[in-house]
Design brief:
It is a single chain. With about 350 residues, the chain is α/β, with parallel strands linked by helices. Helices cover about 35% and strands about 20% of the residues. It contains 15 helices and twelve strands. The longest helix is centred in the last third of the chain and has 20 residues, at about 340-355. It starts with 7 loop residues before the first helix and ends with a helix.
């Protein structure tokens, strides 16, 4: 998902930690039973004090193996499921969940605290193969300065993005390799239906949409509104990112601006939920279960928003003031039943690739 190694370049020195393990996990079969290895996409980030608390209470040391964008990480985890790189996988979301479940990526485990998860985020409750951890909205972000300078009203909806006024302004991620790219595709399918989304993408392509491999390139290299994009002299003032991206631009700025330099086109949002699970054939199942339990505690859920720029799923977890001020959740995001995603995702991605990339 979205999350914050996205903003890690901006967060250096702010007390975040991203632990990395190279090669095979020491928590996998035959490894050190006192080490639990988490396999994740590149956006895992957590406070040092929080990891220290888990290690002290559980007796397990944590290693994290980051494995690219969410789509890439899920695919690799599936390919290595018989000899997994770790014990727990974090970062499969509702756009990719069926692929992971259908391929037997996870074993059953009902994490302690699962009864505290908000009902709308619960899935697979009969088998408990995955545990919801966080949620957020994939949305088009816009560069306020660009639109002010050009006296142009920022887009607010999917329909706006195909208007001539916004020609050659949008950059998005590849739906076949990127979680936000796929989420944006699913948002258009939810908005325009099975028969209308392809025509929409034909118009979007004709209107000059640019497609890049992943979020990092789109947001930090192509988008003119981000701190990274400004340094790169980026020229696209619209990007597929997250509703929580504007708070990050405020929090990591020095000096901090009075208002966020970026905004959200609230009519372009798709609700994303991110899960973790105990990997099949994990070497350290006890350590994996302990880590999953910990990820649902108030300590972890309260720490998550300002580290990974996501919303907690636990009832009563704290949402930072910066989120409510600069990046509130969309009031009416597009959603899609996981079963419909499972039935159509691969065909939609194949059609999208033919339409947009060829």
């Amino acid at each position: 998902m979205r999350t914050t190694n996205k903003y890690i370049a901006l967060a250096v020195g702010l007390g975040l930690v991203t632990l990395s393990a190279c090669g095979s996990s020491s928590g996998s079969a035959g490894g050190d039973s006192k080490t639990v290895t988490l396999v994740s996409h590149d956006s895992w980030a957590v406070s040092k004090s929080v990891i220290a608390e888990f290690e002290k209470k559980s007796g397990f040391k944590v290693k994290v193996l980051e494995d690219g964008d969410a789509g890439q990480a899920v695919n690799k985890a599936i390919l290595t499921k018989d000899n997994p790189q770790g014990d727990v996988f974090f970062g499969v979301d509702n756009t990719l969940l069926s692929r992971a479940l259908d391929n037997g990526l996870f074993q059953s485990y009902e994490a302690k605290g699962a009864d505290q998860i908000k009902p709308e985020y619960r899935v697979d409750e009969d088998k408990h193969r995955v545990t919801p951890i966080d949620t957020g909205d994939i949305c088009v972000n816009y560069d306020k300065a660009y639109f002010s300078k050009h006296k142009l009203t920022p887009p607010t909806s999917f329909d706006d993005l195909i208007k001539p006024a916004y020609k050659n302004l949008l950059v998005t991620e590849n739906a076949s390799t990127s979680s936000p790219g796929l989420g944006f595709l699913l948002g258009t399918a939810a908005q325009y239906g099975d028969d209308g989304w392809q025509d929409y993408w034909k118009k979007l392509k004709a209107n000059g949409v640019k497609v890049v491999d992943g979020w990092e390139q789109a947001y930090n290299e192509e988008f003119s509104g981000s701190a990274g994009g400004k340094k790169a002299k980026a020229d696209r003032p619209l990007v597929v990112s997250y509703a929580s991206s504007p708070p990050a631009e405020v929090i990591y700025a020095d000096p901090k601006p009075a208002t966020a330099p970026t905004g959200v086109a609230t009519g372009t949002c798709f609700r994303q939920v991110e899960y973790a699970g105990l990997l099949s054939n994990a070497g350290n199942t006890e350590g994996g279960k302990a880590l999953l339990d910990f990820m649902l505690t108030e300590t972890f859920q309260d720490d998550m928003p300002l580290n990974m720029f996501v919303y907690p799923v636990r009832e009563g977890a704290q949402v930072p003031e910066e989120f409510t001020k600069y990046g509130p959740q969309a009031e009416d995001p597009e959603t899609m039943d996981p079963a419909k995603i499972a039935d159509n995702r691969d065909d939609w991605v194949k059609s999208w690739t033919s339409l947009v990339l060829k």
